[in-house]
Amino acid sequence: MSVLDGYPETAVLARGLTQELMVYKFAVDELMTKLKILSEEFDFAHQHDPIEHITSRVKQPQAILDKMRRKGLQPTLAAVKEHIEDIAGIRVVCPFVPDVYTVAGILGRQDDVEIVKTKDYIAEPKANGYRSLHLIVRIPVFLSDRVERVKVEIQMRTIAMDFWAAVEHKLFYKYDGEAPKDFAAELLVAAETAADLDARMNALHRRIR
């Protein structure tokens, strides 16, 4: 069933979202530029790049509408802007755990970046073993007739954390949420192994430096 069924206002909202998502794309572009500058500057000045790679995405209108419906929110642009914080998303993958906090700290000190919310799943992993640092930031996007302050979700993690999260997602997607009962325990052990690997590699990095 389409999210539009029984929700006639969403036809109008979907049209408005298509235009609004362009602004979210601009916000992603702004942050991607900041992160790329930071990466290149560190590589040049400190001979260590704290960013391994960066990816980004902007949710499609149907995915936003589905989430609005699940949350029981009114189908308006105002509700979208207020309550849906992951429309625009950036994933920053770092070599080492300290790099995650270094990049987050530098972003937070920039005048035009406002940290709205922080969820530290590295310090306090989720029950299934998931580790990552999540930031909701708000940045200004300068348009021809106005300035919009746009929320972007930034997920920051190490290579090991990213590998675990990607494979965990593929495993559960394959089983359509009905994975074998022993999967949860095995994935938790794998997450702990990845965390141990992060600690060992960071120790080696400190010795080299």
Automatic annotation (TrEMBL):
Biological processes annotated in GO: guanosine tetraphosphate metabolic process
Positions of the RelA/SpoT domain: 56-179
Protein name from the UniProt record: GTP pyrophosphokinase
Matches recorded under CDD domains: NT_Rel-Spo_like
Pfam families: RelA_SpoT
Top-rank lineage group of the source organism: Bacteria
Organism name: Amycolatopsis taiwanensis
